[in-house]
Amino acid sequence: MSDDRSDTPDQHPSGAPWRNFYGRFKGKGLRKSQEAWLEEDLAKLAPGKVGWEENPKRDNIDLKALFGDRDVWLEVGFGGGEHMVHQASQNPDVGFIGCEPYINGVAMLLGKIRDSGAGNIKVHPGDARDMFDVLPEASISKAFLLYPDPWPKKRHHRRRFVTQEHLEPLARVLKPGAIFRVATDIEDYVRQTLEEVPRAGFDWLAERPGDWQTPWDDWISTRYEQKAFREGRTPHYLTFVRKG
Fold this sequence. Notes:
Layout: H1 32-41, H2 63-67, E1 71-76, H3 82-90, E2 94-99, H4 103-116, E3 121-124, H5 128-134, E4 140-146, H6 164-173, E5 174-184, H7 187-199, E6 202-204, H8 210-213, H9 223-230, E7 236-242
Parallel strand pairs: 1-2, 1-4, 2-3, 4-5
Antiparallel strand pairs: 5-7, 6-7
Helix pairs in contact: 1-4, 5-6
């Protein structure tokens, strides 16, 4: 059976565009504590009505109501949440929105939020494209894409985040001059990133090899990066700026 669903309608019966999602929503069983975090904390950390079924008109979420006058940063696919909690703790004057459809990762993040006491994080347990639908234009000051699913097979490269399907709406919600960071240990992902991200309206801020070989000053190594080191792969740290 084809995996591109070319024989499916362009729209969901609700009126939403039919979006393929490739990846896992849930892994191994959750611990009792993680189930409790999801039950007790997730709803109150929601950024607003994001999905099509609860927000069919795609009304923008009110970032001022969520974060006041603070800048807002966005992390796409936060994994276990260690980077976002680190950034939120180091930048209490910034509001953070994290998107992650993998519920086990969401549960891990909620535990880290409890431990850290960070009060400036909102969590969308779903596809980042749904968040792009309801974020105001030019509202995000910085975005992170850290060790995304590499989809290594060539026929699966269109599933990667660094395609125009994802990058164009990301560019829409970023402010002119906003920073977009991408970290990956997959060389071909670097190639595709450097081809596609500039097409979406970004400049690559690299002048010398050290600019992409060296982690950012405020970086915290994640479990995905540690796995890359163990398996002998080299991380790349790519920084882009949204054009005006």
